[in-house]
Amino acid sequence: MYKNLLRVVSYLREHKKSYITGMAFSSIELFIAFITPYLYKQLIYIVTNDTQNAAMRTVIILFALLIILTPFAAYGYYLKQRAATHCAANLRNDLLNHILRLPPAKLLQGERATGDYIQRLSGDVTAATGFLQGYTSVSAVKVVVYTIVPLVILIRVNIFFALFGLALGFLSTFFSTAMKRPFAV
Questions:
Q1: How far apart are the first and last CA of the chain?
Q2: pLDDT tens, 25-37?
Q3: Long-range contacts for 142-148 (Cβ within 8 Å, ≥24 apart)?
């Protein structure tokens, strides 16, 4: 599986740096997601209590952070989408060139028409490059943020809890993927 993903990433070619930059900027979205509930909490605190100075200052700082970080997150999403589109175009061009170099007898054998092959390959290209454009690549960043960073903190605090949490994470991952697999008949 990883071999196929690395092959798809290799089709980014000259757009690898912009994709990596886009992923880095897109990860700012996680920070925005963490800021927003705290901002709402502070706004509720201001409305319900009479002491407003410190809370108001916090709201202004958080709101300024949101305004500053949002364009970077949007630009990261744009860079990521642009690089993934170029990747799909490169992959489609290479597949079409490969099909055009095949002898006609190879394409005409079997019950499918040539257009069926091209349509099938085009769908496969869309599926293969979908992880670059979609939520899968952001999920990879979330794995780092949600598991590795807390694991490092837990190791520093208490190694027993870190090992227990790691074992529990592996078990939950195994059982969640095992439940999604179809049963053999």
A1: 24
A2: 877 887 787 788 8
A3: 142/30, 145/27, 145/30
Instruction: Please provide the DSSP assignment of 166-185 as one string.
Output: HHHHHHHHHHHHHHHSPPP-
Q: Are residues 80 and 123 in the same domain?
A: yes
| Cα–Cα distance for residue pair 84/182, rounded to 1 Å | 31
Contacts of 22 (CB under 8 A, 6+ apart): 75, 76, 77, 78, 79, 80, 81, 82, 83
Closest among 156, 158, 98, 87 to 126, alpha carbons compared: 87
Distances (CA, A) of 90 to 22, 39, 75, 85, 87: 19, 43, 23, 9, 5
d(CA 92, CA 50): 63
Return the residue matching tokens 């837990």.
154
Together in a domain, 36 and 102 = yes
Q: Are residues 47 and 112 in the same domain?
A: yes
DSSP code of 91? H
Domain that holds residue 164: 135-185
pTM above 0.85, yes or no: no
Alpha-carbon Rg for the chain, nearest whole angstrom, is 24
109-160 confidence digits (pLDDT tens): 766 666 677 777 778 787 777 777 766 666 666 666 667 777 787 788 888 8
